[in-house]
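Hi there, hope your week has been kind to you so far. Thanks so much in advance, here it is.
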Amino acid sequence: MITSYREAPSQTVRGGDVTFAYRELGPRGGVPVVLFVHLAATLDNWDPRIVDALARDHHVVAFDNRGVGASSGRVPDTIEAMADDAYTFIAALGFEQIDIMAFSLGGMVAQDLVVKHPDLVRRLILTGTGPRGGAGIDKVAGVTFGDILRATLTRSDPKEFLFFKRNAAGKKAGKEFIARLDERTNDRDAEITLTALRIQLKAIRKYGRSAPSDLSVIQVPTLIANGDHDRMVPTALSEDLHRRIAGSELVIYPDSGHGGIFQYHEQFARLAVEFLAS
């Protein structure tokens, strides 16, 4: 049994007209935890400390959506279509019920999936994300390209700017996060293309300018987490999700940004494991 994300082999499964790339680890049996990843991310962008903590007691599955990383096809230009692809992938693996842990764009996709297939999900973790029509979501493209430029000028990884505050604690957490992502040296995924990134940003802009979804249909236990200074998907939107999803739990990490769960990875991993087991 593989319990280290660093060692989980990349695999593929055919779903509809797409060959999906994925990795899985942890004990088989029970309800699997499917990871929904963020903007511009591939299989290599999950924090191994969080994934490994989940995999001690859970079957964990990460995947590349259509047109991203090693998955075939063209990236959809709507969040709804991404959710449909996620459902196709889940069905291709034969899962009838899942838990979800989602971050940022992945949280938007997860919401659309649960709204359309409310019986599919047992427990839901939404981090660094917001609801359809949330104020400021349509500004993600500007923030993203601005921070990519800042990172290029300083020879840094853009995630250090996008995910973390630019104070001493944030800079330290950002570099440590990037180092964890680089621990895997073999069988790494293909990086997202600029074209695919632009299409994802277009989909997020549409999502931010759309009419809100009826999140009252989400009746499953839901954990919502974010940093208190999220510049990409404003922290207020996590609070909005908490109000709109009945019975949800909300955790806001202090002095942290969009990647608050990565800055506080030890605390968040413990919380996520306890939430899934409760």
Q: What stands out?
A: The longest helix spans residues 194-208. The chain has a mean pLDDT of 97.
